[in-house]
Amino acid sequence: MLGETLNAPPPAEAATETPVLPTSLLYSIFARIGGSGLDTDAFETLRASHRGGFLGKAVAYDNRQREIPGSLIHSLRWHPVRLLSHMDRPYYYGAKKKYLDWVVSRQLESGRYDLFHSWSGDCLESLRVAKRRGIPSMVEIPTWHRDRGKTVRSDAATAPPAKKKTWKQTLLLTRDRYIEEYNLADLLVVLSEKAADTFRFQGFPEEKLFYLPRGVDVDRFRPGVRPPLFRAVFSGALIQRKGIHHLLEAWHRLELKDAELWLIGSVHDEAKPHLKKFWRDNIRVVGFARDVENYLSQGSIHVFPSQCEGSAKVTYEAAACGLPQITTREAGDVVVDGMEGIIIKPGDVDALAGAIRHLYDHPDIVERMGVAARQRVVENFTWDHFRARLLGGYERAMQMAG
């Protein structure tokens, strides 16, 4: 199983063969290089190829770091699609992604690159060019297969003829675009076992899936001093997909003494009715915070009952801060049930409330799980681990194409 290979890669001296790596990588992403969130992932990805001496070019929407020479990064910060910025977000978003794809496809036509790495939704035309020119390709999947765990029935034979799209409609990203990208790529990068399962369900062979969990800066995210009271922390956008409504309901039921709930993240409109309905005076809404580590390090536990993620970065961050977590398998693979936290099914408010109560009643378990959480991250999920695994993915992609 993919998720069973989480140990650090073997030391270099244990290798018996010289890895087959590219000589010139072309990387593209609908994000910035350097920053937070996906921007950090992009930067650490480029670090691996730059330090390996084979970064040919990266195409992104901005460059906010100085370690990698700017000559190797094609920034699209000033782009003509800005003229469409007045349009509704789905159209503008789609136009920007397709412009990125167009720029990258022209780069691939030059013949200067021997490996292409991009993200799903960003690269259909580029993958077509790569396939035609025999350039190996790998595509990262930020969450799950587009159809998740569902079987999609094809009604093409009985469907009425498709109407001609307006120019505006052509900007939207359709399901067919993602599906064709999956099929064209030589290697699909999945971030968790749950994500891999959605591709297995759709019939993708095991050898086409490459497991690449994320990393975390264990120097920035460190354990702090345990608070004098029981403090549960939720970090992430306050949206239903991340289970904020279930957490608020569970917390309201419990009526815990000497306890508080901190909510770290932007408050979306869909969360406001639940905040009003299940409000208690021991809830603190912090809002968006750039220094999220300062809040996590002051917690007792982290609660993240998400219903759909790729591999939630906050689960790495909370574990690095030494917090036991109550989370779901849908959030990723950082937590082993009963070791670094408690895994529940998404949407199960009874189980969520029970797990919070269990940790509230057993501070000794909180302490033991917190130590185990920090250890698991340090041994498996640093950015060094991420880059080493990524190089293994590049080697696999080159071998598959060969």
Structural notes for this entry:
With 402 residues, the protein is an alpha/beta fold. The chain folds into 2 domains: 226 residues, Rossmann fold; 151 residues, Glycogen Phosphorylase B (Rossmann fold, 3-Layer(aba) Sandwich).
In a few lines, what is going on in this structure?
The chain is α/β, with parallel strands linked by helices. It is built from 12 helices and 15 strands.
CATH topology of the largest domain: Rossmann fold
Find the structural class using helix and strand composition.
Answer: alpha/beta
Number of domains: 2
Alpha carbon gyration radius:
22 Å
Write the layout of secondary structure elements.
Layout: E1 25-28, E2 32-33, H1 38-52, E3 55-60, E4 62-63, E5 73-75, H2 89-109, E6 115-119, H3 124-133, E7 137-140, H4 175-184, E8 187-190, H5 193-201, E9 209-211, E10 230-235, H6 244-254, E11 259-264, H7 272-277, E12 283-287, H8 292-296, E13 301-304, H9 313-320, E14 325-328, E15 341-344, H10 349-361, H11 363-380, H12 383-401
Parallel strand pairs: 1-3, 1-6, 2-4, 3-5, 6-7, 7-8, 8-9, 10-11, 10-13, 11-12, 13-14, 14-15
Descriptive keywords:
single chain; 402 residues; alpha/beta; Rossmann fold; 2 domains; six-stranded parallel beta sheet
